[in-house]
Amino acid sequence: MKILALGATGAIGNSLAHLLAKSGHEVSVTSRTVRAPKTGIRYILGNAREENFLIEVLSQHWDAIVDFMIYNSSEFSNKVAPFLQATDQYVLLSTARVFAASEAPLREDSPRLLDVCDDVSYLATDEYALTKARQEDMLRSSGKTNWTIVRPYVSFGPARLQLGPLEKEDWLYRAMQGRSIVFCDALMTRDTTLTEGADVAAMIAGLIGRQEALGEDFNLTNGISVPWSTVLATYQSMLKRHREHESPVRLQDVETFCKATNPAQVRYDRLYHRRFSTEKISALWDTSQMSNPLEALARHIDAAFSGPYAFGPINWRSEALRDRAVREHVRPDEISEMKSILLCKAPLLTGRDD
Q: What CATH class is the domain 2-312?
């Protein structure tokens, strides 16, 4: 099959591209940075959010398109028809953050925030969970069925290790610098579901080219849920193993915690119990193949300490807020370049979970 993967360069996308290429498919991946071709994978330099670039890549027909890009609702409404015309199967990476709170394990037909939330100010935004729900609706109202919606939730890999809404740049970086991990007390007892990115990629691969997947949506998550306190304990055990001591943890109330992170992600997702039914995806993919999430997390932390570990940009504005709250401070040599200091003015993380 000829498969186009838009923006497939993250934790799930990289694994998916290699998995599809290994299975003999011809894989093309769009990327905003130059990348060397790999066996079975070619990289197309360009931004899939730009109209002219997208027109060019969609000028040929693809057996499948897997879309990892983040668009706002307006952008996506203009792209739905071209996507569906250019392929036999368009796979939209949505998110399980679309769902409202539920004490029961979440199924594909569970109520979504967009449909049941009564917070008018929140519904007036295009926050990530709402954006994805609206994009799902655009596909359903397109009059076509050559689409598949997939919803990962808190996927992780070597470059992405989350703690609640925090990326590794928000908590692991602090721990490696000898400062406190700043977390939220209310999240400690909330159940979450973490899934290794490679497992999500394998599930997506298992849906590509399947007639049964057309016009359907699938939650691509592990069936194992644990409290965030257990996730933190797993991280701490690995920090102790490699650094001979655990990192201090400072717990904040929700209001204070949200000052340095994405408040919508906390209030409309991480504060909910997130447990999932795997019944629907199990009918098309053997979920017994999935990794145990805590064992996989420990393995990735091990890898982080095995050599030089790369962090993405640090949001120094958020760091300053955390340091002020717990009376710690950044060492002057941590901010090595002036462009890093400018990140103090950067927006907070969007909270994408795939």
A: alpha beta
Q: How many angstroms separate the Cα of 112 from the Cα of each of 232, 245, 265?
A: 28, 42, 14
Calculate mean pLDDT across residues 84-112. Answer: 98
pTM: 0.93
Distance CA 94, CA 214 (A): 15
**What's the rounded Cα separation, in Å, for the pair 67 and 170?**
27
Using DSSP, state whether 133 is helix, strand or coil.
helix
Nearest-5° Cα angle at 211, 209 to 212: 120
What 3-state class would DSSP assign to 27?
A: strand
Rounded Cα–Cα distance for residues 42 and 16 (Å): 13
Report the alpha-carbon distance of residue 302 to residue 161 in Å, rounded: 12
* Phi and psi torsions of 90, nearest 5°: -100, 125
Q: What is the largest CA-CA distance in the chain?
A: 59
| CB hemisphere CA count around 195 (13 angstroms) | 31
Query: Could you report the per-residue pLDDT of 51-97, keeping only the tens digit for each?
Result: 999 999 999 999 999 999 999 999 999 999 999 999 999 999 999 99
Residue 168 backbone phi and psi in degrees, to 5: -60, -25
Confidence of residue 339 (pLDDT cuts 50, 70, 90): very low
- Amino acid letter for position 285: W
Partnered with residue 227 across adjacent β-strands are 191
Tens of pLDDT along 225-267? 999 999 999 999 999 988 878 899 999 999 999 999 999 999 9
**Domain ranges for the chain:** 2-312
DSSP letter for 99, please.
B
Whole-number Å distance between alpha carbons of 251 and 272: 18
B/e letters for 28-53, b = 16+ CB within 10 Å, e = fewer, are bbbbeeeeeeeeebebbebebbeeeb
